[in-house]
Amino acid sequence: MKTMPTRRRYILIGLFALIVLAICISVGRAAFRSPWIKVHYREMDANADGALARSEFDAETEKTFTAFDHNKDGSLTTKEYSSRDAHSVMAGYLGFHAREIDTNGDGIITWEEFLKETGKMFDEADANHDSVITSQEFALIKPPILGGGRPRHHGAEGRR
Q: Coil, helix or strand for 49?
């Protein structure tokens, strides 16, 4: 059996080490990613009081859906929600989490599906269920645990 030349072996070991490092970095970033609502609530806080009222959140939800619903039929096709036409805080969330939002998997996001999924996100953050998420409640929001089921409401993990 021939042994691999030393230089070639070192190159392969170096490449393997770089791959392992890249995997560790990407897993580390996912482990510390903050939930979407925690990152973006200030942008939806219309009255700038440091809290996010359900009415402010719902207004952003409606603004986003309406901006993408080009034909005004109450549902979003992949073509509609993939467009860059909507200028909304929630536009990126919709694109990243389309598979989660489309609960029946038909490739179309209805208003009801979008409202239900975004509503869950708000309700999970509103610890005392008073329809206002305060800075104290935002501080309680923890990132998801890796490997604990499908990711919810944070970053690009749900992206197609």
A: coil
Count of Cβ atoms closer than 10 Å to residue 102 Cβ:
19
How far, in Å, CA of 35 to CA of 41, rounded? 10
Q: For residue 133, list its beta bridge partners.
A: 52
Name the strand (E) or helix (H) holding 53.
Answer: strand 52-53
34-160 — its CATH code? 1.10.238.10
Distance CA 91, CA 81 (A): 8
Rounded to 10 degrees, what is the CA torsion of 89, 47, 153, 127?
A: 180
pLDDT tens digits, one per residue of 7-32: 888 787 777 667 776 665 655 444 45
Tens digits of residue pLDDT in 81-134: 888 777 788 988 888 899 999 999 999 999 999 999 999 999 999 999 999 999
pTM of the model: 0.68
Mark 14-44 as b/e (b = at least 16 C-beta within 10 Å). Answer: eeeeeeeeeeeeeeeebeebebbbbbbbeeb
